[in-house]
Amino acid sequence: MPIQGEADDAVPVISIASVGDFLALLKPRVMSLVVFTALTGMVVAPGPIHPVIGLAALIAIAVGAGASGALNMWYDADIDAVMSRTRNRPVPAGRVSPGEALAFGIILSGLSVLALGVFTNFLAAGLLAFTIFFYVVVYTMWLKRWTVQNIVIGGAAGALPPVVAYAAVTGTVTVESLVLFALIFMWTPPHFWALALFKSGDYEKAGVPMLPVVAGDHETRRQILIYTVLLAPIGMLPWLLGYAHWSYGVVAGLGGLGMLWLAIDIWRKPGDMGPAKRMFGYSILYLFVLFACLLGEALVMRVLA
């Protein structure tokens, strides 16, 4: 007869996670942005790539982004459980165990890097591996919990997918791909600090040193304005450097003015969260429209060539 307590140890734990829960671990909204910016980097890159290889590369990059999301959710389960925006994620909600999320993320990370190396080249695979490492280890495990510069430095991870895709086509990293990196990198702070302004209570409860929590509302609004002033001309660089056309220049110019107007509105109205909410929503549209314009122009030029 088994000793009491041993029977429980012998019973295997059955996962209650659904397919939808594992898909949620991949952060599909973030993944969709990664795929879109990577596709733009791939199409903007000079030189042909076979459609099947291009599709395989995009899938590998998407899976790598999803793996990063799963590992982020594994490590941040304690923080996510405190914040209203994230408490229903699969790990803090108890639908996926931490071990399942960790194994899922590690396996997908390895497969994505290996697949990209096999289908394209080892520079692209190395850049993807570095992106995953940077997001999980440098940002999630270190920057996010320990420094107010978490979003600024950590934004490099979200800015690398178009560089990875560009390298998948060309086997190189050039000024053109680095401009795409710079655009996303400089966009990230005002985008996330706008969110942090009206979610600062959540970050404070979770102990995350976001700028509004550490430096206050006034400094956050000032930093949003500074980074937006720097972002607007960077958004124009593809046109100024000659690898985007006049339509992009017009869109980037008007979009940048819109970002500046909202940043000034945030600065002028301390205590009013309306401008911050509008900036958060508009900034997503701004980045999408700029990359859509780059993608559209590049596709048209390939058809006409």
Automatic annotation (TrEMBL):
Enzyme Commission number(s) of this protein: 2.5.1.141
CDD domains named among the record's database cross-references: PT_UbiA_Cox10 (cd13957)
Pfam families the record matches: UbiA
GO molecular function: protoheme IX farnesyltransferase activity
Annotated transmembrane regions: 30-49, 55-75, 96-116, 122-143, 150-169, 175-198, 224-241, 247-267, 279-304
Top-level taxon of the source organism: Bacteria
Topology of the protein relative to the lipid bilayer: Multi-pass membrane protein
Pathway membership, UniProt: Porphyrin-containing compound metabolism; heme O biosynthesis; heme O from protoheme: step 1/1
Protein keywords: Cell membrane, Heme biosynthesis, Membrane, Transferase, Transmembrane, Transmembrane helix
Main location: membrane
Residue runs in coiled coils: none
Family membership noted in the UniProt record: Belongs to the UbiA prenyltransferase family. Protoheme IX farnesyltransferase subfamily.
Protein purpose: Converts heme B (protoheme IX) to heme O by substitution of the vinyl group on carbon 2 of heme B porphyrin ring with a hydroxyethyl farnesyl side group.
Extra remark beyond the main annotation: Carbon 2 of the heme B porphyrin ring is defined according to the Fischer nomenclature.
The protein's name: Protoheme IX farnesyltransferase
